[in-house]
Design a protein that fits this description.
alpha/beta, Rossmann fold, Cyclophilin, eight-stranded antiparallel β-barrel, six-stranded parallel beta sheet, 16 strands, about 25% strand, binds flavin mononucleotide
């Protein structure tokens, strides 16, 4: 009887150990961060297509969204591009600056996703009215557009040559039926750190030995960089990982990688930082932060870790 109790306890503790860092609960896939106070989605949409993409980007980022409303609304006949319509006349007139009805406060935002439809290969003239009306200096502008088929490139070049001082990223054209993954990828590829520069690696000193974490380009890696420097002890688990629960949560976009490679730096849930030092197959979901090349076996004890930009 006594042996049975001891055996049950042993199995119970073994299960606890196997479940590991996340206490067995699968992290929820919450996609990207929900607290982008410094990011604004600003868009013009004459017939509602760009509006739908703008709303999806805003929902994913949890950021503010503002529509650029023309003082004179574009009616159907204004958009009939097979005729001498108002939109065509504006596009052909280099001086046309259609008035904007609403006042827009861009002052508190560092990053502005700027959305518009493509009109005759470029941005509608109301976007130039916007650039004339507000000071975008020092802000990062990330353009996005919808169109019948034309790519965004021509309009981005036009915006850059309109004001060469502005920091305008390459941007992306969307179709209405583009998946959530496409939108998430777009957001993550534009992730910048708090000083508006992309940091691609981080220094990690593990038990006094220096390594480099080559970072993923995503919102999680970006937020991870923004919380550095950090120094802590990481606990051993399962003979393949060292982990620590961070003080604060990071944005997640978790999925099951199926295989873990030695050197992978992952986020489990939204606040458990994990460094794997063995390769193995996994059924758990993680958000990848980066990878350390040539990481040796870190042994069975906890390790001291210092992380710096
Ligand atoms: C005046 C005008 C010009 C357009 N020119 C182009 C074009 O050059 N290339 C293209 O692919 N689509 C063009 N389109 C189609 C729009 O870009 C497309 O329908 C867009 O998704 C509309 O977005 P919205 O609903 O947000 O206004 C044009 C539409 C209008 C009204």
């Amino acid at each position: 009887m006594k042996r049975k109790v001891v055996l049950s306890l042993f199995v119970f503790f073994l299960l606890l150990i196997l479940i590991g860092c996340g206490n067995g609960k699968e992290p929820v896939n919450t996609n990207v961060t929900k607290s982008n106070n410094d990011t604004l989605i600003l868009y013009f949409s004459a017939t509602g297509t760009t509006k739908k993409i703008a709303e999806r980007i805003s929902t994913k980022l949890g950021s503010d969204i503002v529509e650029i409303i023309p003082k004179e609304k574009y009616k159907d006949e204004d958009l009939d591009y097979n005729s001498d319509c108002r939109a065509n006349r504006e596009q052909n007139d280099s001086k046309a600056r259609p008035e904007i009805k609403n006042k827009i406060d861009i002052s508190k935002y560092d990053t502005i996703y700027l959305g518009y439809p493509i009109w005759w290969g470029t941005n509608p003239k109301i976007i130039l009215t916007l650039l004339d009306s507000y000071d975008f200096t020092g802000k990062t502008i990330i353009p996005f557009c919808t169109s019948g088929s034309t790519d965004i490139t021509g309009s981005v070049e036009a915006l850059r040559s309109y004001d060469s001082k502005l920091n305008i990223k390459d941007g992306k054209r969307f179709s209405l039926n583009d998946s959530d993954e496409i939108i998430t990828k777009f957001i993550n590829s534009n992730a910048v750190n708090s000083s508006n520069e992309v940091v691609s690696s981080v220094k990690a000193v593990i038990n006094s030995k220096e390594y480099t974490i080559n970072l993923e380009v995503n919102e999680t890696a970006n937020s991870f960089v923004n919380m550095l420097p950090k120094e802590f002890k990481m606990e051993e688990l399962n003979g393949n990982e060292k982990y620590i629960y961070l003080d604060s949560s990071l944005p997640t976009n978790s999925s099951n990688p199926k295989h873990i490679n030695s050197g992978d730096v992952m986020l489990y849930g939204d606040n458990c930082l994990v460094i794997f030092y063995k390769s193995f197959d996994t059924s758990y979901s993680y958000t990848k932060i980066g990878h350390i090349d040539n990481l040796p076996d870190l042994g069975s004890d906890s390790v001291s870790v210092k992380l710096e930009k």
